[in-house]
Design goal:
The protein has six helices and three strands. It has a three-stranded antiparallel beta sheet. The longest helix has 15 residues. Helices cover 42% and strands 8% of the residues. Helix 4 packs across helix 5. By secondary structure, it is mainly alpha-helical.
Length: 130
C-alpha cells in the first residue's frame, strides 16, 4: 500500500469541485428583503461551541467572521468568496438555528420639505430671537 503524503492535508470544501447546492444543503433562497446587501449580521451571545462543531466548514467560516461584531451580508460574501445567494442561504440557516442575529438596514431618509424647515426656522427666530 503506497503511503500518501496528502492524507494529512485538509480538503478545501469550497473548491470548484463542490457544487454550490451542496454547500447550501439544497435550500432555496430566502426572500430578497430578508437579507439585503446592507443587512448587518453578528454572532448571537448564546452561540456555543457545541453548535459550532456541527456546522459545515462554510457556515463555520461565516460564524468566525461575525463573532467579533457586525458585518454586512455583502462583506461576508466578499470575505468568504462565496456567491451572495449562497451566503444569504447560510445566514438564513444560521439565524434559524439561533446562532446569528440580523439587523435590517436603516431605511434611507426621505427628502425634507425645504419650505417647511424654513418656516420652522423663521418661527424659532421670531420666538426666541436670533
Amino acid at each position: 500500500m503506497p503511503d500518501r503524503p496528502e492524507q494529512d492535508e485538509e480538503l478545501e470544501l469550497t473548491s470548484p469541485l463542490v457544487p454550490l447546492f451542496v454547500i447550501a444543503n439544497g435550500r432555496a433562497l430566502p426572500p430578497d428583503h430578508e437579507y439585503e446587501h446592507t443587512t448587518l449580521v453578528t454572532a448571537a451571545a448564546e452561540s456555543g461551541q457545541v453548535a459550532a462543531r456541527t456546522l459545515s466548514p462554510e457556515a463555520r467560516q461565516v460564524m468566525d467572521l461575525v463573532a467579533d461584531g457586525f458585518l454586512s451580508v455583502a462583506e461576508v460574501a466578499g470575505h468568504t468568496h462565496l456567491p451572495l445567494g449562497i451566503v444569504r442561504i447560510l445566514l438564513a440557516q444560521l439565524e434559524e438555528d439561533g446562532l446569528i442575529l440580523a439587523r435590517t438596514p436603516i431605511p434611507r431618509a426621505e427628502r425634507v420639505d425645504r419650505e417647511l424647515v424654513s418656516a420652522v426656522l423663521e418661527g424659532l427666530k421670531n420666538r426666541f430671537g436670533a
